[in-house]
Design a protein that fits this description.
CATH superfamily: 2,3-Dihydroxybiphenyl 1,2-Dioxygenase, domain 1
CATH class: Alpha Beta
CATH topology: 2,3-Dihydroxybiphenyl 1,2-Dioxygenase, domain 1
Helix content: 25-40%
Shape: globular
Largest sheet: 4 strands, mixed
Number of domains: 1
Order of helices and strands: HEHEEEHEHHEEE
Distance between the termini: 39 Å
CATH architecture: Roll
Number of helices: 5
Radius of gyration: 17 Å
Strand order of the largest sheet: 1-4-3-2
Number of strands: 8
Strand content: 25-35%
């Protein structure tokens, strides 16, 4: 069994994984799959339907899987962080989409500032909490 500590600290042989990583895609669930599909398309994500219960949504080379599965403890505790290059422009774009008016349960929280940078928040129609952030330049 591979333990997380091996991945972090390296394995006992001192070898490191050499294979190029091309993507990392979280799986997120949906309370109402059709509403969530419309929501993410409205945000500008391109949908590729993989099966009747699974789609991949992509935008600018980044993507995630949306599945027709709703387990409240899982979905309502899921958070995704997406880094953007300009948090204020991104916030303005979110507001222009009028997502809170178009979709049930959607909530936006304005930009907040922290020591590391700034971020705003979006709860999707299922309760997934998206963090959109911009790190301070070093």
């Amino acid at each position: 069994m591979l333990h997380l500590s091996c991945l972090i600290a390296g394995n006992n042989s001192g070898k490191k994984m050499q294979t190029e990583i091309r993507s990392i895609r979280p799986f997120i669930g949906a309370r109402d799959f059709e509403v969530s599909r419309r929501f993410y398309r409205t945000m500008g994500f391109k949908e590729t339907e993989l099966s009747p219960v699974l789609s991949v949504f992509g935008l600018q080379g980044f993507s995630f899987y949306l599945q027709d599965s709703y387990i409240p403890d899982w979905v309502e505790n899921t958070m995704v962080f997406m880094e953007v290059d300009n948090i204020f422009s991104f916030w303005d774009e979110l507001i222009e989409l009028k997502l809170e008016e178009k979709f049930p349960f959607v909530r936006l929280t304005a930009v907040r500032h922290f020591d590391w940078g700034s971020e705003c928040y979006l709860h999707d129609p299922s309760g997934i909490l998206w963090h959109f952030g911009q790190f301070k330049e070093q």
